Structure formats: structure tokens, C-alpha cells
Amino acid sequence: MSGERPTVAWIDPEALAANFGEARRLAAGREVIAVVKADGYGHGARTVARGLLEAGCRELAVATVDEARELRGAGIQTSLLVLGGIHDAAEAETAAAHGLTVAVHHMGQLPWLRAAAPVGRAPLALQLEVDTGMARMGVPAEQVAELARAIEEAPELELDGIYTHLSRADEEDPAPSVEQLVRFAGVLDALPDGGRSLRRVHVANSAGLLATPELESVLPAAVNAVRPGLMLYGVAPAPHQKARAELTPVMTLETAIVNLRDVAAGRAVGYGGSWVAKCEGRIATLPIGYADGVPWSLANTGVALVNGIERPFAGRVSMDLVTLDVGSAPAKIGDRVVLFGEPALPVEAVAELAGTLAYELLVRVGTRVPRKVRVRTDS
User: Fold this and answer.
1) CATH classification of 251-373 is 3.90.1170.20, yes or no?
2) What fold does the segment set 13-234 form as a domain?
3) How far apart are CA 60 and CA 184, in angstroms?
4) What is the C-alpha to C-alpha distance for residues 273 and 253, in angstroms, rounded to an integer?
5) Beta-strand pair 268-269/275-276
6) Domain extent listing, the chain
7) Backbone dihedral region of 26: left (phi > 0), alpha (psi from -120 to 50 degrees) or beta?
8) How many angstroms separate the CA atoms of 34 and 12, rounded?
9) Residue 44 to residue 317: CA distance in whole angstroms
10) Which of 36, 158, 159, 199 is packed most tightly, with the most Cβ within 10 A?
11) DSSP state of 108
12) How confident is residue 194, by pLDDT bands cut at 50, 70 and 90?
């Protein structure tokens, strides 16, 4: 890393491939639609997409048209589902131009999509998201049949699939998810042949897939795909789901000590002097801060691994710097420091200290932190 700030997010493609393999195992023969939205959950969408395709993935999903366009620009030509749909005529035209599959959430989107559909070519593929309990996006269950007919009657459009999103699958009680699946089954029953003629019918996010033993018995027969996101990056949505799959962290956020300072007892450190040395010791400064994604809430509560040894944050997190209390432990300028990603310091543990979610920590790693592919040398 000569000539560079020693702060990097290492991405492990072997871990990504292994996690995809676990998703495929739990999918039990169903297609795995890998979610790579939010720049591949902060890991770098292009790198992640290529890694997943190499691992055997055949379909990807993103949140926005712009995310899909970026992947197309990187040469990713596989099926791309835009979960967030389109919001105006211009987005519809972009989606059509790049051969995207677009989620539909209300009737008002159809005129834009019909106008954008390429003349004399294959119809524009659409999928209906059904609201079965999230109350966020998606078509209300009672409107699905009407919207499906409107799509089928438009020669420019094709109903490619239908799906719903589980809102509480990370809870230990499966009852709320079972209730959503029953509603979804009712929607499918109202469609011709129960939705079996559709290319894709999918439900399970990572939490739903990791809850498979509880939900499998109530999955509608037409469901032929799953839609994991977080687990692909080596994180289980809830602690009780960790044992359901062997997941390996894909990202390790790493930096190095750039300064060491002796401090006497009573010496305050950082903005506001919120940390005061209880005894003589040393403070290590790291070139990473909240502009890079380290939560401000980790002030005086966070930890990092210095040469594999856990050391506490000392004082507030600054925009560009973090200070650690290394005491008398072995430490020198240039020593490796891990903020999260190793078994001894998983992102879930850091998220708990910060009072947030692992999802957020991953996606908030800043753009000035380079993502680099780690090539394993071990056999």
C-alpha cells in the first residue's frame, strides 16, 4: 500500500463464493437471485457481481435503475431485477434500453413502461411486488389481479414474475412470516394456474432463507426462487440464525497505526476531553473516522484489534481519525489494526456496540476507503 493511506476494505471473493454456496444449499433447488444493491452492500457492486457470476449465480437484483446501469456499463449482462422500480418516464427508458427487469408497485408506472418498451423487440419484463405486510412498497393484495391483467393485455409488456418481502423473518417467532406467506398464497391462487406459468416467483430474503425449516412447509408451490442479500456477505440477520449456515465475512475493514503518544494519568484525549487517562499509558492514532464509516456513537465504547489484541477506543471518533488506548501492549507505528471483519471482531459485534445494524456498518464504509480484493495464499 505504498503511497496510500493505510485504510482499506479487503474483499474476500472465496468467502463470497462460499456464502453463495450456502444460499444455494438452503434454496433447495430454487434459483438464487443475489441482491447486490447499495454498491453490493458496501463491498463494491462490480466486484461482487463478477464474483457471484463466477460462483454460478445467474440472476442479480439491485434497488435502482442507476445501480443496474452501472453494472451493465461494467459488462454485467445477466438478468438484473430493479427492486425499487421506476419513478418517471426517463427511468423507464433507461430500464428498457439496458434490458432490465423492473418491479412494479402501482398502476401509475405502466404508462411510462409501455411508452419506453422497445418497438419490434421482446416485451419489457416486469415483476409485481405484492405488499403482504411490509406496508412500504408493493401492490396491495386486492389490486394484484387487476394490475396483472393490465400488464398481460399490453403487448409491449410481459409479466415475468411476482414476489413479496418478509418484514419479520429475522424474529424467532415464525408466525408473522407464516401469515405473510398465507396472504401471498392467496394472491397466487387468484392468478391463472396459481402463478406457475410465471418465470419467477420468489419470497425469501436472507432472514427468510435462514428460517427455512419453519417456513418451508407453508411456501406456496409456485415459489421457484429465493432472494438473499446480507448472508451473501457473511452476516446472519439475527443471532439465532447464525447456526443455520456456515457464513464467512467477506469484508475486513483495516487500517494501521500512524501515531503513538505517551499520556500521563489525568490527560484528556480528543474533542471535548471525553476520555481521560486513568494511568500512564499510550494512545494510538488511526487514519480512519466517521467520514470513512466509523460510527460517531463508538466514542469511548468501540474496540479494534491491534495485532490481534482488542483495544478500546479512547475519546470521540473524529471525521478522519480514531484514537485507541493501547496501554503498555506491544504496538508501533505501522502496525495492522482491524475495525471489523475477522472472527475475533465480527461486524455484528461492532454494530451492537454502536447501537446499529450490521447492514448499516457495511454500507456506510466511505467512498474514500478503497475496496481491494484479497487473494488468499493459504491452501
Assistant:
1) no
2) TIM Barrel (3.20.20)
3) 22
4) 27
5) antiparallel
6) 13-234, 251-373
7) alpha
8) 17
9) 25
10) 36
11) G
12) confident
User: What backbone torsions phi and psi does residue 230 show, to the nearest 5 degrees?
Assistant: -55, -40
Instruction: Select which of 37, 41, 290, 359 is catalytic.
Output: 37
Cell 417467532 identifies what position?
173
Q: How far is CA 379 from CA 14, 201, 375, 376, in A?
A: 12, 40, 11, 8
d(CA 28, CA 23): 9
pLDDT tens column, 358-373: 999 999 999 999 999 9
Of 41, 163, 271, 278, catalytic:
271
β 200-202/124-131 pair status: unpaired
Task: Summarize pLDDT for 9-59 with one digit per residue, the tens.
Answer: 999 999 999 999 999 999 999 999 999 999 999 999 999 999 999 999 999
First vs last C-alpha separation in the chain: 24
Q: Active-site residue 37, yes or no?
A: yes
* Cross-strand pairs, 81: 61, 101
Name the pTM for this structure: 0.95
